[in-house]
Amino acid sequence: MSTVQSEVNCTQCGFPDAWEGFDCRSSEWWVGCPRCGYRESWKHESYFSNGHLEKDVHEVLYSAGAYCAKKSDIGIEQHGSLSETDVEKTAAKMRDDIASGKLSPGSYVTRYNFDTREVTALVGQVPIGDETQAEKDRNPVAP
């Protein structure tokens, strides 16, 4: 299996380091934002039972928040999207898990405001990206 991955701007919150991936074997494409939880995917499906059916499946998930649960002792990091009803519940559980040592302090929960397009941290810190624009300007990619 061959996969191409890159960083793109998030459609929902504008975060410059959202993940984009393309599976060259299955032609599946996806985008995920670790900051606001936005998800989008596209895949082509072919079914051949009871006749020939082909369809394109495009899914978009506008999320009310995101989480990142880090366990540094074993090197695991899990990201996910949250519905409006799950944001507060997840934040409360993550506060408890960080306090008890089950999760690393780098874990976070965010809430996305659809009106202002702002992301706020309920636990931890809001991801700001790998580089600032000034760093990107100092280290341009050669043509």
Sum this structure up briefly.
The chain has 143 residues and is an alpha+beta fold. The protein has helices spanning 84-100, 133-138, and strands at residues 3-8, 18-23, 28-32, 39-47, 53-61, 65-71, 76-82, 108-113, 118-123.
Query: What's the gyration radius in Å?
Result: 18 Å
Instruction: Detail the poorly predicted runs.
Output: 132-136, 138-143
Proportion of residues in β-strands: 35-45%
Distance between the termini: 29 Å
> What is the number of strand segments?
9
Which bin fits the share of residues in helices? 10-25%
Order of helices and strands: EEEEEEEHEEH
> Averaging pLDDT over every residue, what do you get?
85
- State the domain count: 2
Number of helices: 2
Strand order of the largest sheet: 1-2-3-4-5
User: What's the shape?
Assistant: elongated
Broad structural category: alpha+beta
- Most strands sheet: 5 strands, antiparallel
Please tag this protein with its features.
disordered C terminus; 4-stranded antiparallel beta sheet; 2 domains; 143 residues; alpha+beta; single chain
Topology, please?
Layout: E1 3-8, E2 18-23, E3 28-32, E4 39-47, E5 53-61, E6 65-71, E7 76-82, H1 84-100, E8 108-113, E9 118-123, H2 133-138
Antiparallel strand pairs: 1-2, 2-3, 3-4, 4-5, 6-7, 6-8, 8-9
